Amino acid sequence: MTRTRSTFASPIVETFGWLKGIEHPADRPLMLVSQAAPVAPPPQELRQALADMVMHNDAIHLYGPVLGLPALREELAAQCSAKYGGRITQDQVAITSGCNQAFAATIATLTDQGDEVIVPTPWYFNHKMWLDMSGVRAVPLPVQGDMLPDPEQAAALITERTRAIVLVTPNNPTGAEYPSGLLRAFCDLARSRGIRLIVDETYRDFDSRDGAPHDLFTDPDWHRTLVHLYSFSKAYRLTGHRVGALATSAELLGEIEKFLDTVTICPTQTGQHAALWGMRNLSGWLAGERDEILARRNAIRDGFPVLAERGWKLRGLGAYFAYLEHPFDRASDTLAKSMVETAGILALPATMFTPPGDSHGARHLRVAFANLDRAGIATFFDRMAALPA
Predict the structure, then answer these.
(1) Fold of the CATH domain 62-282
(2) Residue 316 pairs with which residues in a beta bridge?
(3) Distance linking the first and last C-alpha atoms of the chain
(4) Tens digit of each residue's pLDDT (9 = 90 or more) over 14-29
(5) What's the pLDDT tens digit per position in 173-183?
(6) Which candidate, 210, 237, 178, places its Cα nearest to that of 36?
(7) Taking Cα atoms as reference points, which of 140, 143, 130, 139 lies closest to residue 161?
(8) Beta strands across the sheet bearing 244-247
(9) Distance (Å, whole) CA 186 – CA 134
(10) Where are the domains of the chain?
(11) What are the φ/ψ torsions at residue 76 (nearest 5 degrees)?
(12) CA–CA dist 187, 175 (Å, integer)
């Protein structure tokens, strides 16, 4: 079996295939709540700055350093140090071609075929796909009723082949924001067992909590255990530019550099310069984006009673996501596919975030609500409430 055949088809690609042959009238257009990405371009001022760079900065069109633009690495290290109250240096930061590549590079560096990585379920499907293609066993750690993983259960899953534990917060797909104490418990567990803790904070800019979401960087030895992943895509609407980042020890980055050099050579220069400009100039704009996402989050919470009356349950809510338990006597993949035609809604079934046959996956849907305004959210609830039993 080849590496790609060892895993499943991309859920995003698969679900877009459900749209073929189905027409949606102009007065009832399709609602896309399947993909967790901004659909709007970057703000005008960033696009203008980027256009000026493309025209006048010759270096932007050439190869750059494998680990990324030094100024961007330095800026990210400084801003993360300030945000988390710890000390992160430029030589502990690398820029990658999207956060998915940051994860792929980390796994390539930490594991060999036959190794194991513990991943809470429901998991982010691209993480699972890369582990499959790497010949690494993803060890499921089912979350509890509050959508949070249990460190004691994780400890029982660690074997001599375990190389890391992966956490995503705010979580994709559940939206759950992991408490600081929970992350500390997982970090202590990983350190005590000599493995790495990979924390993906792609959606951290839309965390509902004020201040640092955890204290992991306050430990002077954080880099010995923690691998921190981040994405600029959501913060500055740079999805098409593919700019992510990771922070860990300089020693581990030396190994990660080998992977990056053979895959992309360097991250896109235009995307890196755009991310740097955004970090230096768009803090106020980003705060407004966060406020709007939190307002939409509140609209989901406030509008949910209309579904609760029909037996639905809101199991998770945060960042871009609402995680819903449905009341119907059919699996979520069947339900989600039928919703395209019956409700004009494309959402992802939780079967795409869980192992085959998992009963949890059969009961839940992920709704990426960030691209719905409040009027759109109201329409979403109207359509969902009208679903036939």
Answers:
(1) Aspartate Aminotransferase; domain 2 (3.40.640)
(2) 323
(3) 41
(4) 998 998 988 888 889 9
(5) 999 999 999 99
(6) 237
(7) 139
(8) 93-96, 244-247, 226-231, 196-200, 162-168, 116-121, 137-142
(9) 24
(10) 4-41+285-385, 62-282
(11) -65, -40
(12) 21
